[in-house]
Amino acid sequence: MKCDKKDLLLYAVTDRAWLNGRTLREQVESALKGGVTFVQLREKTLNEEQFLAEAKEIQKLCAQYHVPFIINDNVDIAAEIGADGVHVGQSDMEAGEVRKKLGSDKIIGVSARTVEQAIAAERNGADYLGAGAVFSTGTKSDARELDHATLKEICAAVHIPVVAIGGITAENVTELKGTGICGAAVVSAVFAQDDIEAAARMLKGRIEETVRGDC
């Protein structure tokens, strides 16, 4: 599967912190019904066996909705289940090595905070970049805020799509208008909401307004 920039519009990153009695599958399906266009499974607490079982379940669900499904960090599990791709950070496996392991048809996303990191990731075979945190976020306590001018410079420096991430909400996403992003990656703005489907639908509309004509 090749990475289409339209698929990156509303990029949902899972987080078990807000299950509140629901299953992750239920949450992801609500998000998909609300218009999420891309799903990244991120797990920090499950063991490999549990992670693998969950990955297979969410993969099947995303296939039903024809939405790309990728794994955060864990290249081995992505390879084992034939996920659509993987997203890696600067401290994880380099994009070129990921490509060797997964093959030419898989989507590879790389986190980037600087123009230099962005250019290097593109050169090494990344299909898209995740840039942030563009606003302060509670999801990653160690994430420093990325200046919006730098975000714009990153978008201008590469030919691959750039997705903004970090602290994005329906209320602040339009502040990113004109930066050149192709979409926004969110966690709590969707999964921490009581009505996930409605939250996703509203957010998608605001992101469409933000990226219109820029990407």
TrEMBL record:
Coiled coil: none annotated. Pathway: Cofactor biosynthesis; thiamine diphosphate biosynthesis; thiamine phosphate from 4-amino-2-methyl-5-diphosphomethylpyrimidine and 4-methyl-5-(2-phosphoethyl)-thiazole: step 1/1. 4-amino-2-methyl-5-(diphosphooxymethyl)pyrimidine binds at residues 40-44, 72, 111, 140. It catalyses: 2-[(2R,5Z)-2-carboxy-4-methylthiazol-5(2H)-ylidene]ethyl phosphate + 4-amino-2-methyl-5-(diphosphooxymethyl)pyrimidine + 2 H(+) = thiamine phosphate + CO2 + diphosphate; 4-methyl-5-(2-phosphooxyethyl)-thiazole + 4-amino-2-methyl-5-(diphosphooxymethyl)pyrimidine + H(+) = thiamine phosphate + diphosphate; 2-(2-carboxy-4-methylthiazol-5-yl)ethyl phosphate + 4-amino-2-methyl-5-(diphosphooxymethyl)pyrimidine + 2 H(+) = thiamine phosphate + CO2 + diphosphate. One of its GO terms (molecular function) is thiamine-phosphate diphosphorylase activity. Condenses 4-methyl-5-(beta-hydroxyethyl)thiazole monophosphate (THZ-P) and 2-methyl-4-amino-5-hydroxymethyl pyrimidine pyrophosphate (HMP-PP) to form thiamine monophosphate (TMP). This is Thiamine-phosphate synthase. The lineage of its organism: Bacteria, Bacillati, Bacillota, Clostridia, Eubacteriales.
